[in-house]
Amino acid sequence: MKFQNQPLICAVTTALLLLSATTPEVTAQKSWCGKPYVPRKQARDFSPNLSPYKRNPFLPRDLLERDATTSNATTSASGNSGTIVLPVQNNPLPTVPDLAKGYAAMARFQPYLDSDSNGSIVLNVVNPNGPISVQIANEDGSELLAKTSVNVKDMAVEVPFPISKLAPRTNAYNLKVSIFSGSGSSPASQIIVKLYRLPSGQKTVKIDRLYGGIITATGDTIFPVGPYVDFGWLGGGAGVAANLKTLKGLGYNVINPDPTYTDLSVVDQMFQAADQLGGIYIQLSFRYSFTNIQQVVSQVNQFKKYNSLLTWYTADEPDGEQWTDSSAELKAYNAIKAADPYHPVALVLNCEHTAAFYADTTDILSTDVYPIGVDMSHCTPTNDVCGCDNCLGSATLDVPQRTGVFMKDLTLIGRQSINQWMVLQAFSDPPTWWSRMPTVQEFRVMSYISIIYGYKSIMFWKYPFTPDNSLQAQITQLSVNGDASNKDSFNVAVKDLQGSGSMQGNGTTDSAGKSTVTMQNGALSGNLNAYEVGVYTFGNLPANIATNSTTNSTSSASSSVSHPFAAYIIVGLGIFSSLL
After folding, report:
1. Residues 430-451 pLDDT 10s
2. C-alpha dist (Å) from residue 484 to 29, 163, 200, 245, 248
3. Residues 357, 319: contact at Cβ < 8 Å?
4. Rounded CA separation 386/433 (Å)
């Protein structure tokens, strides 16, 4: 659950006094993540001239339009549409069917353009049994790739094929991918893969499902790092252009301006300023309006022309109240893709067991994990809410646990290659669930764990920080900005650098404590204190990087480093030993 934070400490104090004096306890039972609970307090909004200290998470939305024909049907990836819609379940521990049966395929890039003559799919085979062959056909039955043997060694394998026969159009092709196991003549699996081959000429942002990267409309491959930003703050004070410059100066390369957008002319000014500034991109949110399809499509058509538009953002934690019913999100997704197939759509989930139910309502699947300062003692997997669904309240364990459940469920439906982003906690809210903010060390360790577990963006809730700015310097250190004109120092090395492009900065390694590791027989061992992070690079690095294959705590680099071959990140829990 997300709340808006007040940037002014005096306003925060006033707001809290008002809360304690005027806000009654709420006794009505509600439901979040499929679990019944009683809210601690009903939050309230304050004067629109002040950014609220927190926003009411139970603010009623527009009436959601339910589509019984889709919300109660199950369509596997081998169906005619290639869209998976699981039946709505009210159980707090919903069942995800094994639709994929160990096989999955998705288009590597979304979208392709008419200038692309070759495309590829990302093939996933769980526990391959013997040789694998792949055949790809167009929706009209014409062959695009003859039956071809594929060497399946890794979790994800790229299978290239020509796409020049696919005439450019604005709606997706539904390609039939047949997967053969062993010497069998009948396919072990047939999967419908959506592939866009669009006419050129529009602002285009591509996502890469093989490496998880994102390529902006200006052609930059970035690892997005940045905050949800209070839109009242962004448009006020020194003005939107100056405030964007401040955010870029902090090292952020993406922001999500948190609505509502009461004046769309300010949104236009924001995009114009971001285009002029360069190197900072916008995730535009429809979180309070995504059920108003006419309004959403109108704004999509108004703002899709800007280079700085990175993604559309439909819904924020819809699974909290809607649980497994994703019909409204699917309707919004389809409307946005019809109006603008050139930009990806994103949303964020809050619950542990909903990834499979929302996977086909978005191109980028985010989750937010807020484990700091919560009391989990009265929560169970089926009852009550504590601010972090099924969490332990651990900076080191809750991101891996959430990721494990997500990946298990996504693999069951064949969507394990979907792009995934992480939203981290950078706030407190004592009147509800979060008694304190993360410490600098806790935020640092959650960031690195997220990178280790494959998330291709680190965002956080929210900016401005309230009431403590101590995290700001730490997040700036962790930020990566690919804009060559902005060479702020950073201390991050990304696990999969093939997906993150060129980075500018003064260093490529980060170790909190100048630790030493030993590599022997393919194993890495050493000693890190709790919450300490070590990043070690190995392999054939570019000549301008000085490194040592057995110890690396202060490795130096020139101001521009592109694609080191390997980066290994370890989060300290004491003595460790790990295979490379």
Report:
1. 999 999 999 888 888 888 888 8
2. 53, 34, 26, 15, 13
3. yes
4. 6
